């Protein structure tokens, strides 16, 4: 297929370095593990930064570039701790889901730190104000409560091992959705996919979007 | 002018696949404010399933210079402690394996041959930071130093530099005023106790003392 990228040949990337890291770690080879970790992080950096950016944008949790950088840095350190101490999986699915979860945690921590710093400007975290219903609330109640709820939700949603795309692609209901996502995964240009399916570019955009939504729904159903 | 979510998502995936390193924030800006949450969720789903892009050497060099990545790698080294960083580096320079060093230890201290495996595990723990550098005895550091081309004194200096407290945990400690010295000392003692190895069910032997007995053991 024209435009298809053979990733296995041109780019060993995350999967390769993940396996190398785990092998070195399990063999007690700290030198090899450190090198593999550094390379793994180079290849994973955009994914980590992307997860942080999305989590930070949700509800405007993070507001400055410094906060985004801080959260990204924390997420990488947390991922290293998880990988070096408790992570036993070796699949990309497990790794990616652990990454996503730790990015969420890092964003929440940076958000909390920003709230604490803001306290020095806005007043004590223990200061209260009266609501319309006469209830006394702390200035940061809403922030902290939302954070606590989110933490609980994340803990409940701890994910099991899944090689995501391999697991979910065959489960998409429509052949067309499977084709579209396979093409996305393989780097097939949109024009080629549209031509193959006999649809317009605009329709191909919608098909890509719908297929991703369907996959997310399946993932969330499995987590429930 | 705002663009449809579907198109922007598709453009993001294409740019990702091309190794063009699309910035999430720029793509979010391309849609109407009311559509951003939906696009963010769609991009997140893509990031969950997207294959790694085929990065160019230049792109990888750019990534390596990213302040957040450089900062994270430096923080990880700090967290491991100086000996955990230095020992693997010296061992690599000297071209000796963990098994080589553990064999030297067994020989130098006339330990039973079967202790070599445990010594290698201890050494691996030192290199990952799981075994605290300050627990190692000076006579052990001399032997390790000889094996990796350094002196025991150099290794002892590295071992005395403790891992830094994790930054995320430090966020919970908010200092509102000067704290008495004894409080800090007590916290230090408690922290050390909390992270100390659990007492062994068997009696400590010479190898345990070499790795956990402290500089004078």
Shape, per Cα inertia axes of chain A: globular
Strands in their spatial order, largest beta sheet of chain A: 1-2
Number of helical segments with 4 or more residues of chain B:
13
Q: What would you report as the Rg of chain A, rounded to the nearest angstrom?
A: 21 Å
Number of helices of chain A: 10
> Which percent bin holds the helix content of chain B?
55-70%
Span of the ends, CA to CA of chain A: 38 Å
What is the helical fraction of chain A, as a range of percent?
over 70%
The SSE order of chain B reads HHHHHHHHHHHHH
Largest interface: A-B, 69 and 65 residues
Low-pLDDT stretches of chain B are 166-187
Residue-averaged pLDDT of chain B = 82
Secondary structural class of chain B: mainly alpha
Average of per-residue pLDDT values of chain A: 76
Please provide a written account of the structure:
The complex is a heterodimer of chains A (224) and B (217). Chain A has 224 residues and is mostly helical. Helices cover 72% and strands 3% of the residues of chain A. Chain A is built from 10 helices and 2 strands; from the N terminus they run H-H-H-H-H-E-E-H-H-H-H-H. Chain A has a two-stranded antiparallel ribbon with strand order 1-2. The longest helix of chain A is centred in the middle third of the chain and has 31 residues, at 92-122. Chain A is globular and about 55 Å long. Chain B is mainly alpha-helical and 217 residues long. In chain B, helix 1 packs parallel to helix 3 and helix 7 crosses helix 8 (115-128). Chain B is elongated and about 75 Å long.
């Amino acid at each position: 297929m024209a435009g298809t990228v053979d990733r296995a040949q041109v780019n060993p990337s995350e999967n390769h370095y993940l396996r190398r890291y785990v092998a070195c770690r399990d063999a007690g080879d700290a030198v090899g593990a450190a090198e593999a970790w550094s390379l793994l992080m180079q290849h994973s950096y955009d994914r980590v930064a992307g997860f942080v950016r999305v989590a930070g944008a949700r509800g405007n949790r993070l507001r400055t570039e410094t906060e985004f950088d801080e959260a990204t840095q924390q997420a990488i350190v947390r991922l290293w701790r998880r990988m070096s101490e408790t992570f036993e999986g070796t699949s990309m699915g497990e790794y990616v889901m652990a990454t996503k979860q730790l990015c969420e945690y890092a964003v929440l921590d940076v958000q909390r730190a920003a709230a604490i710093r803001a306290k020095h400007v806005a007043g004590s975290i223990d200061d209260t104000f009266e609501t319309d219903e006469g209830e006394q609330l702390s200035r940061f109640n809403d922030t902290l409560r939302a954070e606590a709820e989110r933490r609980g939700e994340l803990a409940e949603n701890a994910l099991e091992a899944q090689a995501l795309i391999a697991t979910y692609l065959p489960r998409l209901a429509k052949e067309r959705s499977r084709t579209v996502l396979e093409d996305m995964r393989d780097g097939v240009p949109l024009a080629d996919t549209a031509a193959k399916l006999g649809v317009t570019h605009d329709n191909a955009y919608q098909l890509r979007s719908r297929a991703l939504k369907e996959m997310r729904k399946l993932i969330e159903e499995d987590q429930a | 002018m705002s663009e449809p979510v579907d198109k922007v998502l598709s453009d993001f995936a294409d740019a990702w696949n091309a190794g063009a390193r699309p910035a999430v924030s720029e793509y979010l800006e391309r849609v109407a404010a009311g559509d951003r949450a939906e696009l963010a969720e769609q991009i997140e789903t893509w990031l969950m399933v997207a294959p790694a892009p085929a990065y160019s050497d230049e792109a990888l060099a750019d990534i390596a210079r990213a302040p957040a990545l450089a900062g994270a790698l430096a923080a990880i080294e700090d967290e491991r402690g100086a000996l955990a960083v230095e020992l693997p580096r010296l061992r690599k320079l000297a071209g000796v394996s963990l098994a080589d060093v553990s064999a030297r230890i067994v020989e130098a201290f006339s330990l039973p041959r079967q202790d070599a495996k445990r010594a290698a595990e201890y050494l691996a723990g030192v290199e990952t930071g799981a075994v605290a550098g300050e627990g190692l005895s000076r006579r052990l550091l001399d032997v390790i130093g000889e094996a990796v081309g350094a002196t025991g004194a150099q290794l002892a200096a590295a071992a005395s530099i403790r891992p830094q407290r994790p930054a995320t945990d430090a966020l919970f400690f908010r200092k509102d005023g000067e704290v008495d010295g004894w409080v800090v000392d007590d916290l230090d003692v408690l922290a050390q106790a909390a992270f100390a190895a659990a007492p062994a069910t068997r009696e400590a032997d010479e190898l345990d003392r070499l790795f956990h007995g402290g500089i004078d053991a």
